[in-house]
Design goal:
- It is built from 11 helices and 13 strands.
- It has 342 residues and is an alpha+beta fold.
- The longest helix is centred in the last third of the chain and has 25 residues.
- The chain is extended, with a radius of gyration of 31 Å.
Length: 342
Amino acid sequence: MTRQSATGRLVRLLALLTWVADHDGVTVQEAASHFQVSPATIRRDVETLWLSGLPGGMPDDLVDFDATAWEAGRLRLTDSQGLDHPVRLTPQETVSLLLSLRVLEDLLASDPHAGTVITRTRQALAGALGADPHAAGAVAGAPGGPGGPDPAVLAAVRQAMDGGRRLHLAYVSATDRRTERDVDPLELVSNGSHLTLRAWCLDSGAERSFRLDRVLAARVLGERSRPHRLRRRPAGARPTATLHLRPTGRWLTEQVPTLRTTTNPDGTITAVVEGRDEEWLVGLVLSAGRHVLDVQPLDLAHVTVRRARAALAADQAVYQDLAPTPVVEQDVGRDEAGPRGR
């Protein structure tokens, strides 16, 4: 039996309170049938709710059921602590959700199924605004979010995943490094702003993530992808870096989430950041530029220095190619034999 996620159980717990409040005296079996779970699951849910409530944990702060009805196999709510009230959104919260859905709608424009679901959700939220049509109109005309992936790229990724085929990608990293590689797709995920393909990279022999808006081209190969175990990275397993920043580098700690930030007596800042991978950390250090005084670990510092030197060398080469040819002035007062004698 598939184990339900903690989020799924939380949703059921809250829904159970509301449903029992509307169906006073319902039996445990009826509740189990309604939520499509076993009676034992409903009993565990009620026992959990009995210990839930407001901060403080005193008897008057907790959800309460009628003990006599409970012993008879029935559910009667005597104190819901307000948790049985439906969630209501303010107009501002509704507009924020509508704007987020507009971003997702643009991002997933190439996915018909996702687009249909998002459109229905957006219409329901727009209807919830009710007496605030101006807010709904403002959202409907709002500009879309960041550009999504190339439709041809998304279609190729979908085709490869549905058919179990290998992909050939042309990819540009956050540091403008272009690579081409063959990958076995694992899953397509989204953080609400970008679609990312998690795949097994055959060149590196490891799992890698590819933002679809950075994929220049994707081609489905005839070879079938091989099964790879999708590894879930445990908390704290991502690479970290300790950055010693000048006082002018405080902007970095305000724009990038940090694990720990310390302001030193001399005004400098020590920040510990966690990255998706080493490539992301390299890009972060390069973007900080002159604001960085020191980087740990040393391996990350060495990689960043090599990447910066390579970029400088490339810039100098381009500058030399574009530099004008120097003009040599001729001395018109001299003949081929040299200066005239006196």
